[in-house]
Amino acid sequence: MKNLQKSCCLILVFVVCLFTICGCSAKKVECPFTEITWENTPEDVQALEGEPIDSYTSIYYGTTYTYEKEYNGMNGTVKYMFDDQDKLMSMAWLYIPESDEDMQSVYDTLRNETNRLYGKSGFDSNMGTAMGEVWYLEDGNILIGVMSTGVNEAVQYQFFHPDVSSPKPE
């Protein structure tokens, strides 16, 4: 399970990088799968979540801490990504689907929930094996990404700190 999650994470990094090249509107962003906010520290995360199941270097040169986390009745993994100053830069919930139908259903549920809260996304893409949408909000970007390689599938619901969010493409 751990190796599958890491493989999916690496695949999703590509999708995340693609979509972060793209971030701003005027609604307060609240991450629905955790009580943690941008002001929290790694110690705050550990106080809420307990001991991480894994930790590794984040794409922000700090540490990513992962925890098993149920969201909307589905078992997944939450990732808290810090920079080299222990500032929280991204929070993501990763779900490994049981089937293509499950993957599409989870993606649709997350997309509909985010559309309801923040309006229509500002960018969407479907590249066959990867698809996703980005919401460009003043308080940071939101990304829902799906990767399907035929071997590894994953859905990731990710929230980005405003410091690492990009402006909406023209």
State the distance separating the first and last CA atoms: 40 Å
Structural class: alpha+beta
Shape designation:
globular
Rg over CA atoms: 15 Å
Q: Number of helical runs? A: 3
Strand fraction equals 25-35%
Mean pLDDT: 84
Q: Note the run of SSEs as H and E.
A: HHEEEEHEEEE
Strand order of the largest sheet: 1-2-3-4-8-7-6-5
Q: Enumerate the spans where pLDDT stays under 50 for 5 or more consecutive residues.
A: 4-27
Number of strands: 8
Q: Oligomeric form of this entry?
A: single chain
Query: Main β-sheet: number of strands, strand sense, barrel status?
Result: 8 strands, antiparallel
Label this structure with key terms:
alpha+beta; 170 residues; 3 helices
Task: Give the gist of this structure.
By secondary structure, the chain is of the alpha+beta class.
Account of the protein in words:
There is one protein chain. This protein is an alpha+beta fold and 170 residues long. It has helices at residues 2-20, 42-49, 100-118, and strands at 54-57, 61-71, 74-83, 88-95, 123-126, 130-135, 142-148, 153-160. 27% of the residues lie in helices and 34% in strands. The protein has three helices and eight strands. Strand 7 and strand 8 form a beta hairpin.
Layout: helices, strands, pairs:
Blueprint: H1 2-20, H2 42-49, E1 54-57, E2 61-71, E3 74-83, E4 88-95, H3 100-118, E5 123-126, E6 130-135, E7 142-148, E8 153-160
Antiparallel strand pairs: 1-2, 2-3, 3-4, 4-8, 5-6, 6-7, 7-8
